[in-house]
C-alpha cells in the first residue's frame, strides 16, 4: 500500500518520472520494511481474539507515532532537486496512515471470517467447566469440540452432551476430531491422571497443548492464582527484569513524566486552587505506601478527602461512593487528576509511570497473609497507573484485591516498554469514557 501510493505520485510526473523512480523505489522499500518491523512489534501480526477495538486503535496510534516521523525522515533524504519531493513525502505518510487503518480493519472485520480453532478440553470436572465457560465468553471464534474426561474423573460436571466417551486414547481422539489445541483442565493431577506420553504425542502431531494457567494467561491476560504453583512461576517464561530493561524503563519514566508535568501544569494549578477554596487543609496529601522490594515511601496526591477522614487513626479502605470524599475530590478522583502529583514520585525514582498500584503497609501485611504470591507485585516499582487499573473496575474487598493481583502478576511477568505505552493510552481512554470513577 505504501509502494502504491508512492508510485502513483511518481507516475503522475510524466517525463520526470525516470529521474525519481530509483529514489522512490529504494526509499519506499526501506519504509515498507520498517513498517513491517513496527507492525510486528505492535502485535498486529499476532493472533489475539479478545483484542478490543480500543486496544487495536491504541496499537495503531503507537505505530503511527513511530511510522509517520520515520516516513518523513526517510523521504527527506531524497535530493531537494528531485521534482515533487514534497508530494513524495506526503504520499509516504499517507501510505503509512492507510496501512494502519487497514490493520485495524483487518483485526475486527476480516478476522470474523477466519476458520474457527478447534479446542479439546482435557477434563470434565469443575475446572474444565470453568475453562469452557470462560472460553465461550472470551473467544467467539473458538469451537470446543468436547470434554475428554481424565482417568480419575468419575463424576463429570460438564454437560453430558459435550462429553466425549474415552473409547480410544486422547491422542487418537484429538487426531480424529482435527483438534488444534488441547487445554489440560484436570481437577486432579496426581495418581497417574496425567497421560504425559499421550499429551507429548499430541504435541508431536502438531496439536498445541497448554495447561490451565497458561490458557488463562493467554486468554484473559491475567494469571489465575488458583491455578498456578511456585514451579510454574519459577520455570515458566517471563519475570525477566534485567539491567537493560530497568534502565530503558527509567529513561522512559523520566522523559514522559517530565512531558506530562509540563503539559498538565495549568490543570494542576486550577486543581490546587479548587481544593483550597472548598475545604480547609493542605492541598497535597502524603501517605506511606509500600514500593519496590517492600521499601516504604511517601506517595503524593491532591487531597480529595476531608482532613478528618481517618480521625481514629485506623486505616480504612476507600469505597466507590465514600462519603469522606469532597465534591472537588469526587471529580478529580473520577478523572484521575488527584494522581498527577505522583509524577514527582516517578521523577524521584520511587514509582514508575506504569506498574502495580502501591498499597499501605497495613493492608499489604493483611493481604500477604491471605493471598498467595501477593508479595510478587513488589518485585517492580509501583505505578501511577497499571494493567489492573485499566482492566478491572474499582474495588475495596479481599476478592477485588485477588482479581487485581491476577492482572498485576500478568504485568510483572510480561511487562515491556510497548505494554507500558499501551497501558498509558488505555488509561486515557478509561478517563475519557468515565470508567475511571473510584
From TrEMBL:
It is found in: Membrane. Coiled coil: none annotated. Keywords: Membrane, Transferase, Transmembrane, Transmembrane helix. It is a multi-pass membrane protein. Residues 249-432 form the Bacterial sugar transferase domain. It holds the Pfam family Bac_transf. The chain crosses the membrane at residues 26-45, 57-75, 87-106, 254-277. Signal peptide: none annotated. It comes from the Bacteria. InterPro entries: Bact_transf, EPS_sugar_tfrase, Sugar_tfrase_EpsB_2. Belongs to the bacterial sugar transferase family. This is TIGR03013 family PEP-CTERM/XrtA system glycosyltransferase.
Amino acid at each position: 500500500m505504501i509502494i502504491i501510493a508512492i508510485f502513483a505520485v511518481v507516475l503522475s510526473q510524466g517525463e520526470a518520472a525516470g529521474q525519481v523512480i530509483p529514489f522512490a523505489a529504494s526509499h519506499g522499500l526501506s519504509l515498507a520494511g520498517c513498517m513491517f518491523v513496527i507492525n510486528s512489534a505492535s502485535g498486529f501480526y499476532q493472533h489475539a481474539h479478545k483484542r478490543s477495538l480500543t486496544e487495536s486503535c491504541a496499537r495503531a496510534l503507537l505505530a503511527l507515532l513511530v511510522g509517520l516521523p520515520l516516513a518523513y525522515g526517510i523521504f527527506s533524504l531524497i535530493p531537494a532537486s528531485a521534482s515533487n519531493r514534497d508530494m513524495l513525502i506526503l504520499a509516504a505518510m499517507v501510505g503509512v496512515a492507510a496501512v494502519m487503518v487497514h490493520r485495524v480493519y483487518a483485526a475486527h472485520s476480516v478476522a470474523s471470517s477466519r476458520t474457527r480453532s478447534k479446542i479439546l478440553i482435557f477434563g470434565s470436572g469443575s475446572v474444565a467447566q470453568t475453562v469452557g465457560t470462560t472460553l465461550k465468553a472470551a473467544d467467539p471464534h473458538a469451537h470446543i469440540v468436547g470434554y475428554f474426561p481424565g482417568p480419575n474423573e468419575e463424576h463429570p460436571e460438564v454437560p453430558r452432551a459435550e462429553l466425549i466417551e474415552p473409547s480410544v486414547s486422547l491422542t487418537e481422539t484429538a487426531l480424529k476430531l482435527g483438534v488444534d489445541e488441547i487445554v489440560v483442565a484436570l481437577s486432579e493431577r496426581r495418581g497417574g491422571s496425567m497421560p504425559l506420553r499421550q499429551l507429548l504425542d499430541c504435541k508431536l502431531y502438531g496439536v498445541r497443548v497448554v495447561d490451565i494457567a497458561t490458557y488463562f494467561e493467554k486468554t484473559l491476560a491475567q494469571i489465575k492464582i488458583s491455578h498456578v504453583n511456585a514451579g510454574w512461576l519459577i520455570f515458566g517464561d517471563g519475570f525477566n527484569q534485567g539491567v537493560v530493561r530497568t534502565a530503558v524503563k527509567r529513561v522512559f519514566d523520566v522523559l514522559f513524566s517530565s512531558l506530562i508535568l509540563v503539559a498538565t501544569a495549568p490543570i494542576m494549578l486550577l486543581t490546587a486552587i479548587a481544593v483550597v477554596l472548598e475545604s480547609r487543609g493542605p492541598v497535597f496529601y502524603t501517605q506511606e505506601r509500600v514500593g519496590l522490594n517492600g521499601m516504604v515511601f511517601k506517595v503524593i496526591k491532591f487531597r480529595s478527602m476531608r482532613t478528618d477522614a481517618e480521625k481514629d487513626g485506623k486505616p480504612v479502605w476507600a469505597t466507590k461512593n465514600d462519603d469522606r470524599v469532597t465534591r472537588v475530590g469526587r471529580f478529580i478522583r473520577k478523572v484521575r487528576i488527584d494522581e498527577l502529583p505522583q509524577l514527582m514520585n516517578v521523577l524521584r525514582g520511587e514509582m514508575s509511570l506504569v506498574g502495580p498500584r502501591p498499597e499501605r503497609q497495613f493492608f499489604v501485611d493483611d493481604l500477604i497473609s491471605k493471598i498467595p504470591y501477593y508479595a510478587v507485585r513488589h518485585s517492580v516499582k509501583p505505578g501511577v497507573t497499571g494493567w489492573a487499573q485499566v482492566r478491572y473496575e474499582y474495588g475495596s474487598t479481599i476478592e477485588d484485591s485477588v482479581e487485581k493481583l491476577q492482572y498485576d502478576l500478568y504485568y510483572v511477568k510480561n511487562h515491556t516498554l510497548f505494554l507500558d505505552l499501551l497501558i498509558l493510552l488505555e488509561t486515557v481512554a478509561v478517563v475519557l469514557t468515565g470508567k475511571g470513577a473510584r
